[in-house]
Amino acid sequence: MPKGDDALARKRGKVRRKRMRSSENAVSTRVAAIIASKRRRKTGKRRGCEGMCFSLPCPEDPFNERHGKKRRTEDAADTNDDHEKKKSKDSKKRPLERATGSNAIPVRKKETEEDRVEYDRPSKFLVVCLNAIRDGAVASEEDGGGIHDSASWGMELWKSCAASPPSDVLDTSHRYATRQQTAWLVSTACDIVARKEKLGVVVSCPFLLYLVPSQEKAVQVRSMCKPLKSLGIHSVSLHPGASIEHQISGLKSCEPEFLISTPERLLELVSLKAIDISNVSMLVIDGLKGFMDLNIIKELRSIRGTISGDAQVTIFSGQCDQSAATVARNLLHGRITKLTTNDSVASRSAFVTQHVHFCTKEEKTSKVKEILEHVLENHASKTAKVLLVAANDNVAQKLSSSLKLEILTVNDGSQGSTFTVCSSMGLINVLVKGCESLATSGVEEFEIVLVADLPPSFDDYVEILTRTARHTVAGEVHVIFSKTDATHAKPLADVLANSGQAVPKLLRQLMDKNHS
């Protein structure tokens, strides 16, 4: 007997749901239910109770998010004894004990190493969130294009946030995060939340805390997060533009996954115990220079101290000075990854200080020794890693041998080009490399680079400069400059000037002499 259209549609839906459940990119049950409800509303196929039940806001539900329905815990409080009273919001987040029988509730588990294997690539849900933000911007007649154009930056951000343990991010692109960067950041947070819920891991609320310096910025970020509500991600903005009583009432009625706030208002609400931010998993500081201009760095440090130390932190700083580097170093506690969408040398080498040392060709070895002793003195409290760049591998070998003879307190490493300088002040590990083998030396891992011989092409020096200290807040590049490097005087002076650093007088004289 041939089957009707309704029976065929039900069969296709059953196969589709089975495929989605077995897919590695399947979303959590809560998110899937929200997506299904939205699809029914769009097609006009509502459930029997939908569209016929009406309710009004009440003091317990001012935003009418429960549609007149009581919480399950409230029903239990009305019918059960005193020992089965209404559970607090904190108790909802505790792991559920395993029940017995056929209706047993699965235990919410903690994240394990096996679960983290799934974080090797983003899920399809991240793209769904990006598209929702883009479509929401287009619907509000704003610029929603170009979100996917920042895919390379977004993927690097996702790798840092989803790593185990996560890596803190210091972005030096612009003074504040662009719309594209904000879209990728909140979508990354959505992806991580969905994965954790799929694995049954308890997700604390708020999961993401997005700090902004002004009310206008808070409204802008909140408008970008608003389209994510249909996907099960709720966001709330807190700023001085609304009364604190209204915000306290709103926070009592919902548990937002994302919280966008100014530091002053957030600390007020924390002091009143209206919200708990100690378990925040991701912290974003949008516009470090803006916070410094408003003189609210003390508030930022207070908020950072309230949050647990293993939270992933992302700071948008732009090209700032060394005072900003000190602030960023106090806010970032773990491994750091520097990112930028700006191709300028100043942006890619932000927080890296360049030092130019002048000497003759014959004095080069003694000058290198002097710089190493200076580094040893300034980094006495920790072990410093120094990359020493020579003209080629032969020169590198000779320079390494000369330094071992001149510096008495030396321990040879496993390789002839590696040695450790020890003293009562501390120690430094030195790796000597020629320009040809820099690609395999991992310049990004070094906080200090000493260029004993400038490469023939100045672009190679720029490559060294922009790759230095990619996993630390600040770095140093020492350049030994002699008369044989006079052709590089002007480009080096331009790089220093564009980076906001002083150009030495001797370098200006060499530059003027070449032009005359």
Automatic annotation (TrEMBL):
TM segment ranges: none
Start-end of Basic and acidic residues biased regions: 72-97
An example Gene Ontology CC term for this record: nucleolus
Any one GO molecular-function label of the UniProt entry: helicase activity
Keywords, in A-Z order: ATP-binding, Helicase, Hydrolase, Nucleotide-binding
InterPro entries assigned: P-loop_NTPase (IPR027417)
Protein name: DEAD/DEAH box helicase domain-containing protein
Name of the encoding gene: LOC123448162
